[in-house]
Amino acid sequence: MRNVLQLLVLTLLIVLVGCGRGDPTSQGGPVSMKRLTPAQYRNAVEDLFGTTIDVSGRFEPDSRRSGLNAIGTSLVAVTPSGFEQYEAMARNVAAQVTSPAHRDHLLPCKPKSTTARDDVCTESIVRSFGQQLLRRSLGDDEIRVRVRAAGATAEFHADFYTGLELALTSLLVAPDFLFRIEVAEPAPLPDRPDRLQLSDLSLAVRLSYFLWNRGPDETLLATAERGELNSHEGLAREVDRLLASEQLAGGVRAFFEDLFLFDQFTDLGKDVTHYPLYNNRMAADAREQTLRFVVEHLVTQQAGYRELFTSRQLPITRSLGPLYGVPVYSSEGWENMEFPPDHPRAGLLSHASFAMLFSHPGRSSPTLRGVFLREALLCQIIPEAPADVDFSLFAADADSVHKTARDRLEVHANEASCRTCHKLTDPIGLGLEVFDGIGKYRTSENGALIDTRGDLDGRNFADPVELGQAFAESPLIGPCLVQNLYRYAVGREHTNRERSLLRYLEARFAEAGYRLPELMREIALSEGFRTASQPPAKEET
Amino acid sequence: MRLLTFAIAFIPLLSACSEDSATMAPTADVIAAAEEGDVRGFVFSYWAYEIPRDDPGECPDGFNATEEEYLSEEYALVSDEVKRRYEAGDRDGALGLLPPDACKDPLVRPDPGHITLNGPATVAGIDLDGEHSTLAGGGQCAHDDFIGPNGEQGIDNQHWRLMGCVSGYRPNGLFDRLFNTNSSILENGYSTLLELQLIEGTRDAGRVSARLFTSAGPVSKDANGKVVRDMSQLVHEDPMYHSAVFEGEIKDGIFTAGPVDAKLRFKVQAIDNHYWFRDLRIRAEMLADGSMKGVLAGYWDIGNFFNFITEVYIGPIHLGRAAANNSGYMCAGVYHALPLVADGHPDPETGKCTSLSTVIQFEAVPAFVIQPQQVAQASP
User: Fold this and answer.
1) A80 pLDDT exceeds 90?
2) Least confident of A25-34, A228-237, A353-362, A461-470
3) What is the DSSP string of A295-334?
4) Cα distance from A326 to chain B (closest Cα, Å)?
5) Percent of chain B, pLDDT > 90?
6) Between chains, do B230 and A325 touch, taking CB under 8 Å as contact?
């Protein structure tokens, strides 16, 4: 009996150690079709044609799911009106590329005659551009049909470039360009006969969009086509190459733009009666400030993620100077500054971007700020407000009694239906009340002193600096980033079978000092990232 | 005929808003930053000549005539042809018919006279010469002082003596509404910067060193058109617009400083010039919100003054005469009156005074005054 018990304990220990140390063999979830985001579309055009080609038009709106647009991209389609927009943008891009101003330096060949078809030149262009836009080599049929159509158009108009424009347009509206279509193929293991893995090309595309927010470059495509991503060594070599690239900054930016809901800056507006200092330039700079701050810390300095919440360094522009009340020496561009140790600002939570984004047009909002921080940074779900809430209880302007947001919210939070959620959101949101609706520091509201004291899950804080410290040291902060980054990388919710992988990644992230590139590497090399599950079985009717 | 009025009508009207300073409380950010180095900066958000609104003084002999009024017969002889040529687009031909332009050369005709304000008025300012002067008392550059709004004696403001009976300079007159505002500041011209550094004592009661600068360019305004406080303001690159360091004091909420000589650039619409003040002094109230409000008082060089009011251009078009006609004075009259009312800086050879006591009302909000060398040192 004792031997049996010892065996059981030993087995349990092995399992636990296995969960904590080794890369668990968690199989990934289902593959999907992911529509390019506007930024990814622009990056694709820029990668191929450079920055001189203007991409103008209206994109189909993104759909945020579970806090990330990256997940929503696999759940959206292209509507008929949206396709018209894509086509208009494609025609516009193709017209610019084939225009006399650009054709000589953008096109790899010149036709024998500009007034006639030249199938050889057209084929060369379609093959070359098609591979980069569609992120794979084109089949002969895909090339032939475009060359034929371009030739006929060139003959009809007696203009080679009009025909080529049509061929380029067709590439720019191809589903394989507008969508990242993932393909999985059987890759059984003795203990997992149903195992699927991403095709080499699909893995290459997933990898490059995860790390760069761009399509794969020629080296990665070639590696994939040689089948070298199948091996751990081949995959690791490419992952390390991508991580060492300057393009990593763009990938990290894209993730945090998504996580921080920064697409909402597009629609941000403030009531200048309350905030005369606010303008669009300031808002754009505030957004950019946070992204630069994140990239500088996590990529350039290779600092730990938790330091984002305590760092006193900040890039700043002249337009942001009055908001932060600091001197800015450069009249144009960015410069770096550092708040002194006793300054009331430190870390991400004191950035103007969050203050202005998670506020109402005419006042700050502890609740909006609290919801964002709980959901995006701690991965806690805050339910929607009940439909029958009487907002008039607290939304009114200050009166003689309820001068501060804390006063007004206390009235509201006493409502039984509101209490549960507001207990989660308001204490941390009220901790940031010294930043008004555009992020300017203040000590009073309507003549009453602002009280920023509160607690984060039992840890008391007195002000935003201490709140930032509490976030940095929260046991949830690292695991939440792991969860969000993993979901962002695979473009879907994690499955129950991936929970052990997430625990493993959390441990590795902590061991690596919460350095983001290390976590990105672990994710990119993980079984969950490169494999897939069988599609859900169809229900029998 | 108001032909020349037509010319200046191209100049868009400026708002005569005088309450332009921001009223937000100073942030802890700003206070912390300033205390660190005991340096405080300010950018002027309002600038206007002192025009005594409650008691501007009487002009028993009437107001000054314009050239169009003074030479009405000459103007009448040519008015139809001037109008025809203007309408035909022959601007130079039209101007050629007018009497010689005394705003270009004040000696083209004999002194037409200029009415000065000779009686009492209640005028804000500073006793610059430390004397309770009277004209009757005689002496070098004798003049009558004013009494201040709070009964202060010995206020020197010969600028008001000179221009107090010019209709456009009277309260709510054309000049007052068009130019005697902080229009240089708000119309994308320049502003004045003031930097204070604590030498001794505390911020509330201490001795400071001070410097005045012209800003490098326009100041930022908020959505309400007010000067943005806490903005970083670069000083003008030309050292001519940097004053020497001068001393001052903060006591009982009042900042006093000077004297110092200063050239301060001014640009609004058709005027692009600078003030040349000598022995300039500052007296301002330090307000609870961190801003200040008070007066600059000093001696305005009379040559620079005449140049300032006559060198008015839109492109190549000289508008000094138009400005005079619209404000209500004659350039030749002012030219000849200036040495008579000047009360400062007597010429050592002739004994004649060469500067005119002048008072500027100003308001200033906190700012960071940035020197060019600090820009170069800024991290990328």
Assistant:
1) no
2) A25-34
3) HIIIIIS--BGGGGGT--EEEE-GGGHHHHT-----SSS-
4) 7
5) 58
6) yes
Whether residue B238 lies within 8 A of chain A, CB to CB, comes out as: no
Domain boundaries, chain A: 36-180, 191-245+478-533, 255-472
CB pairs under 8 A between A and B: 78
Question: B368 at the A interface (CB within 8 A)?
Answer: yes
Please give the ipTM for the structure prediction: 0.79
Q: Mind telling me how many Å the CA of B243 is from chain A's nearest CA? A: 21
Evaluate if residue B366 carries a pLDDT over 50.
yes
The helix/strand/coil state of B264 is strand
Give the rounded distance of the alpha carbon of B126 from its chain centre: 15
Whether the link from the prior residue into B26 is cis, omega within 30° of 0, is: no
Instruction: Please state, rounded to an integer, the average pLDDT across all residues of chain A.
Output: 89
CA dist A194 and A186 (Å) reads 7
Q: What are phi and psi of B197, to 5 degrees?
A: -125, 125
Look at residue A421 and tell me whether its pLDDT is greater than 90.
Answer: no
| Alpha-carbon distance values, A61 to A85, A256, B309 (Å) | 12, 19, 59
Inter-chain contact B378–A335, Cβ cutoff 8 Å? yes
* HSE (side-chain half, CA atoms, 13 Å) at B217: 6
Q: What residues of A are in contact with residue B368 (Cβ under 8 Å)?
A: 321, 326-328
How far apart are alpha carbons B369 and A327 in whole angstroms?
8
- The residues, any chain, with a CB within 8 Å of residue B227's CB and separated by 6 or more, are B20, B21, B22, B43, B44, B45, B185, B186, B191, B219, B220, B221, B365
Find the Cα–Cα–Cα–Cα dihedral B284, B285, B290, B296, rounded to 10°. -10
Distance separating alpha carbons of residues A209 and A228, to the nearest angstrom: 19
In angstroms, the CA A250 to CA A134 distance is 21
Sign of CA dihedral A241, A247, A249, A250: negative
- Cβ distance B180 to B49 under 8 Å? yes
Q: What's the average model confidence in pLDDT over A169-193?
A: 91
Q: Which of B301, B300, B40, B36 is nearest to B193 (CA)?
A: B40
The pLDDT score that the predictor gives to residue B172 is 87
Cβ neighbours for B346, distance < 8 A, ≥ 6 positions apart: B140, B141, B352, B353, B354
Number of H helices, E strands in chain A: 26, 11
**How does DSSP classify residue A377?**
I
Local confidence band at A1 (pLDDT 50, 70, 90 cut-offs) = very low
Nearest CB partner across the interface for B29, out of A277, A279, A326: A326
pLDDT range class, residue B290, cuts 50, 70, 90: very high
Maximum distance among all alpha carbons in chain A? 92
Nearest chain B Cα distance for residue A322, angstroms: 5
Beta-sheet pairing, B231-234 with B353-370: parallel
Q: Which residue from A245, A221, A227, A37 is spatially nearest to A134, judged by alpha carbons?
A: A221
Give the helix/strand (H/E) hosting B369.
strand B353-370
Asked if B277 and B239 touch (Cβ cutoff 8 Å), the reply is no
**Bridge partners, B276 (sequence order):** B263
In this structure, what token pair is assigned to residue B111?
């002194």
The enclosing H or E element of B336 equals helix B331-341
Chain A residues lying within 8 Å of B28, measured CB to CB: 325, 344, 441, 443
pLDDT in tens, B219-260: 999 998 899 999 999 999 999 999 999 999 999 999 999 999
Candidates A270, A323, A330, A463: best to mutate against B (most CBs of B within 10 A) is: A330
Distance CA B246, CA B130 (A): 19
Q: What is the mean pLDDT of residues A81-90?
A: 93
